[in-house]
Amino acid sequence: MDLQGDELTDAVVDSFGGSRRYRELMSSLVRHLHAFAREVDLTEDEYFKAIDFLTRTGQISTGTRQEFVLLADVLGLSMLTVGLGNKKPPEATQSTVFGPFFVEGSPEVQLGDDISNGAPGQPCLVSGRVLNTKGEPIAGALVETWQADEDGFYDVQKDLDAPQNRAHLTTDADGNYRFWAVKPVAYPIPDDGPVGELLRAGERGPMRPAHIHFMVTAPGYARLITHVFANGDEYLDTDAVFGVKQSLIADFTEHQEDGKTFYTVDYDLVLATTEEAQQ
Ligand code: BEZ
Ligand code: FE
């Protein structure tokens, strides 16, 4: 009764039962939240505005409009968590943010197939090998990929009957993966909701540099979630979600053939074993 200040904080922390980990998470969360409110001398007006912001973040969210994921991304929480959870050897491909546009059950394709399915954009041949940290090929690895089209939209942001620029395939005996898609372009993260308001209030931009998403799995190896970014993109240093790593930047090379333009990018994806990823 009559709890205030540190006594109130202690009482909330002590109120939690449950598993040891649950209590660790909740007591730290409560202590940091209370410390934040004390540090900034939070007013009731600001508190109600924050509650309204979170309420609207929930209200706009659907299966394909993941506003809370966006919020975590623009606050850098996703990338912080990626860093904490990915302690692997330097030879392994670095991980980056998952983002809100992955969809389970993408079409299965064969090596060399075109996954653009009519999406607007310049043709781009994406290839490489899936390797272990010794440089040996991993046959039969599952490579899932997704990316935006030339207009900067993922298929799930459009009203379509079939997926575009989204597929999964299995590496061949030499670890090769290969598919045609469109050349990715820089695009704004959805900014017509609460997260867009937050960015504008902070005079921040919504742009992400051009990239292709990959999620790669193989038995005995740690799952890799990453992107390949386009070298030279003007937003590499100002990614709205802080996801760029130098080692993930690759050249998208322009080619002309029979008066037609296409691009190629070649990038090897190196997996750490589950043991290597735990060290
Ligand atoms: C994406 O790359 O798909 C993405 C990542 C974070 C926020 C929005 C989009
Ligand atoms: Fe993306």
N-to-C series of helices and strands: HHHHHEEEEEHEEEEEEEH
List low-confidence stretches.
none
Q: Helix- and strand-based class?
A: alpha/beta
Ends distance:
47 Å
Inertia-based shape: globular
- Helical content class: 25-40%
Query: What is the count of β-strands?
Result: 12
Number of helices: 7
Radius of gyration: 22 Å
Bound molecules: benzoic acid, fe (iii) ion
Sheet with most strands: 5 strands, mixed
Assess the beta-strand content as a share of residues. 15-25%
Arithmetic mean of pLDDT: 96
Summarize the helices and strands and which ones pair or pack.
Elements: H1 5-14, H2 20-40, H3 44-60, H4 67-74, H5 77-85, E1 123-132, E2 142-146, E3 166-170, E4 176-182, E5 187-188, H6 194-201, E6 207-208, E7 211-217, E8 224-230, E9 249-250, E10 253-257, E11 260-266, E12 269-271, H7 274-278
Parallel strand pairs: 1-11, 1-12, 8-9
Antiparallel strand pairs: 1-4, 2-3, 2-7, 5-6, 7-8, 10-11
Bound molecules: benzoic acid (BEZ) and fe (iii) ion (FE).
